[in-house]
Amino acid sequence: MSKQLQQSQNNAPAESNKKNELVTKVAEKVQSMVENNQINIPENYSIVNAIQAAYFKLTEVDFKKKTSLMDSATKESVAFSLQDMAIQALSVAKNQGYFIVYGDKMQFIRSYHGTQAVIKRMSGVKDIWANVIWKGEEFEVEYNERGQLAFKSHKVDWKAATGNKDDIEGAYCIIEREDGVQFLTVMTIEEIKTSWSQSSMGTVQNKYPQEMAKRTVINRAAKAFINTSDDSDLFIGAVNRTTENEFENERKELNPEYEIKEKANKESLDFEEEKPKRKKDVIDYEVEERKENSLFNDFEESQKEPEKETESSGGPGW
């Protein structure tokens, strides 16, 4: 047995323990937020179970890349993405989201079902739903007494739902408040495609255009509710971070540096662990910003390794 292989096997239990300790720390941190009334978690949501299910997903080995997602990202970004999932009371076991690694930074991204679940949790929201408008169907809207665009009718032709992207004319979303007032958002297929063109999820959009069209219009409809909500800042922050960049133009208006950072992030996915933070790196910026809020400072201090152990690990280090 080679010295390198033997060393790798000797390090395996230690590496596994560090990964388990990481997810335990995340669960404890989120639980403390609940106990301190910083966030509200539904009674039927188990923080421990959701994070453990995510841990199993993250440690699954990709046989093509010969590594797991967890081994492909920095421990800080893994911790933050797990936290974002738990704060929103979502679960990968229910297909409410998934983890993506850009360079060596992990992010949690909500699915279509996850976005619906999050919006229903927001204060004052009773329900949310979305539908696709197919070619040949009759869809009518009108302005109500308040001068707002309102749903009038949608004559559905089930044969028109071919699942083909070219047969989609648009999509709409309705958010209903607890007082019965409904808010309608409509997007044409041209608007939807414009949003898709700014995303890195082209393969998924082409494979599941119907579900992705719903997801896009839901994200747009939810934007006003998210940014005017009186829910906790931690909850809203997690929601905003995990909203896919469907609306890059609006983000540019809110943050002039966004275009520079986003383009830089798309052009180069090679991040260096010890490289100082750069303003143009959007994901590094978000990680550093959250570190300044001291959400994981105690965790990071507990995870500092002796220098010799780091040098002998031969891996990314935990």
What Rg do the Cα atoms give?
22 Å
Q: What is the topology, as strand order, of the major beta sheet?
A: 5-8-9
Order of helices and strands: HHEEHEEHEEEEEHHHHHHHHH
Distance between the termini: 25 Å
Number of beta strands: 9
- Count of helical regions: 13
Strand content: 15-25%
Taking pLDDT < 50 over at least 5 consecutive residues as the criterion, the unreliable ranges are 1-12, 245-296, 305-318
**SS-derived structural category:** alpha+beta
Mean pLDDT: 76
Give helix % range.
Answer: 40-55%
The biggest beta sheet reads: 3 strands, antiparallel
Tally of domains? 2
Outline: globular
Your description of this structure?
This protein folds into 2 domains: about 160 residues, no CATH class; about 100 residues, no CATH class. Helices cover about 50% and strands about 20% of the residues. The strands form 4 sheets. A 3-stranded antiparallel β-sheet has the order 5-8-9. The chain has a two-stranded antiparallel ribbon with strand order 1-2. Strands 3-4 form a two-stranded antiparallel sheet. A hairpin with a 5-residue loop joins β6 and β7. The protein is globular, with a radius of gyration of 22 Å.
